[in-house]
């Protein structure tokens, strides 16, 4: 006999004003899938942002005191609202054991736990409330570093959090840019210490993006990869465009992504032909980049190769 599906309970914790309510409103309340559920939001602290103008299928219950996190509280809420989906916005300062050790209705089942962290206050909280921080993080499968900027110390964030919760997925979010695609040097699929950084087809996209985000990492480095050669009309003599077609979101959305390459025999290359390029990377002002600075590869060798398999 098949078992009865349990009501999933999602715990979203963090310190006051970390952005938990905003996250719930943007990522969960607006999710079209939630329109088919009877959602119960159990809020264990009230910050500056409130739950207002919620759809009829979502109900909010506020627990103001730690002592009210009790089994009978959950039981009464279950009887009153008969939810099919439960979200607990939990006050981490109350201690996670308070919540973990409180029996929930038998029809409920803990599905996941996520932690929201304000990057602006991370250093202060982590230095002065480390034990509480560790308690909040320890069982989380996802951690969102909120209100980041590209100047933040992302290695500090990662090292500090992964020591406590090595299994978690860490995401960086900016108020201006949304999710930041941050690639630390240790996460790259190749070593920057190699005399020649050899890129396979899977590493090419990572390298391309990281070259744009962190050009200083590659200044003077030598790279080698297989790419197509293109010779746009506006390119100078002795320069060509070396790159690959890259799937940006789906197979129907492919873009050619590449960089300017300086090569004294560029005019002899076949348009669209494949070549193995070994080149030294420099950041320079180039007319091909509308006079802006960008990566310019100084070719050491360029050899035609057969078209790679798809």
Rg over alpha carbons: 26 Å
Low-confidence stretches: none
Number of domains: 2
- Helix and strand sequence: EHEEHEHEHHEHEEEHEEEEE
CATH topology of the largest domain, which one?
A: Rossmann fold
* Gap between N and C termini: 47 Å
Class inferred from helices and paired strands: alpha/beta
What's the main sheet like?
A: 8 strands, mixed
The averaged pLDDT comes out at: 90
| C-alpha geometry | elongated
Reported CATH architecture of the largest domain:
3-Layer(aba) Sandwich
* Total beta-strand segments: 14
Report helical residue fraction: 10-25%
Strand arrangement in the largest pleated sheet: 3-2-4-1-5-6-7-8
Strand content: 25-35%
CATH class of the largest domain: Alpha Beta
Q: What is the CATH homology-level superfamily of the largest domain?
A: P-loop containing nucleotide triphosphate hydrolases
Number of helices: 7
């Amino acid at each position: 006999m098949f078992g009865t599906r349990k009501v999933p309970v999602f715990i979203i914790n963090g310190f006051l004003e970390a952005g938990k309510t905003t996250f719930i409103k943007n990522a969960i309340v607006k999710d079209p899938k939630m329109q088919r559920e009877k959602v119960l939001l159990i809020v264990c602290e009230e910050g500056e942002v409130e739950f207002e103008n919620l759809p009829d299928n979502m109900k909010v219950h506020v627990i103001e005191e730690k002592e009210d996190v009790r089994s009978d509280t959950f039981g009464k809420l279950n009887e009153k609202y008969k939810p099919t989906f439960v979200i607990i916005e939990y006050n981490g300062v109350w201690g996670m054991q308070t919540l973990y050790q409180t029996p929930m209705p038998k029809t409920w089942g803990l599905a996941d736990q996520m932690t929201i962290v304000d990057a602006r206050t991370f250093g202060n909280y982590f230095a002065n409330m480390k034990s509480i921080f560790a308690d909040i993080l320890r069982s989380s499968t996802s951690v969102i570093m909120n209100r980041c900027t590209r100047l933040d110390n992302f290695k500090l964030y990662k090292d500090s959090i992964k020591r406590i919760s090595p299994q978690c997925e860490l995401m960086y979010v900016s108020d201006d840019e949304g999710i930041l695609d941050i690639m630390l040097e240790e996460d790259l699929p190749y070593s920057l210490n190699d005399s020649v950084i050899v890129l396979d087809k899977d590493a090419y996209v990572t390298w391309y993006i990281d070259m744009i985000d962190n050009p200083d990492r590659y200044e003077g480095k030598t790279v080698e990869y297989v790419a197509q050669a293109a010779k746009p009309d506006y390119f100078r003599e002795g320069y060509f465009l070396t790159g690959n077609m890259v799937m940006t979101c789906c197979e129907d959305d492919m873009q050619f992504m590449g960089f300017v390459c300086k090569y004294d025999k560029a005019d002899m290359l076949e348009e669209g032909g494949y070549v193995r390029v070994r080149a030294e990377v420099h950041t320079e002002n180039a007319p091909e980049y509308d006079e802006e600075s960008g990566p310019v590869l100084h070719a050491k060798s360029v050899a035609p190769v057969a078209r790679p398999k798809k």
